[in-house]
Design a protein that fits this description.
InterPro entries: LexA/Signal_pep-like_sf. The protein is mainly beta. About 5% of the residues lie in helices and about 45% in strands. It contains one helix and seven strands. The protein has a seven-stranded antiparallel beta sheet.
Amino acid sequence: MKTNLLAFKVTGDSMDDGTRSSFEPGDKLIVQPFSIGDFRNSIGNDLNSFWVIEMKKGVLVRQIVEYANDTIKCHPLNSSEQYTDTFIEIENIVKMYRVMQLQRKPIRYGE
């Protein structure tokens, strides 16, 4: 079975809670594309996983913590009041990408 993987670069700090589990600005996320149908069929067994969510109005990286009535509850890791859980209806999603691997941004010393 051939799997196509893609990469997204993290911008912003909504998924940075200061722990090793964070996705920090500059990190790369290696993702596997999912059709909306495949996502619907698999998310019930895959809650709390991390996803890149492409919508008509932008792209988010979030942990999906709940799925019901064709709506997903998306959780940012950053607990700042600036970031809150959001609900997205499946009909507003263009494409889903499951995060398979995190590649940390390089650390450069002495520059």
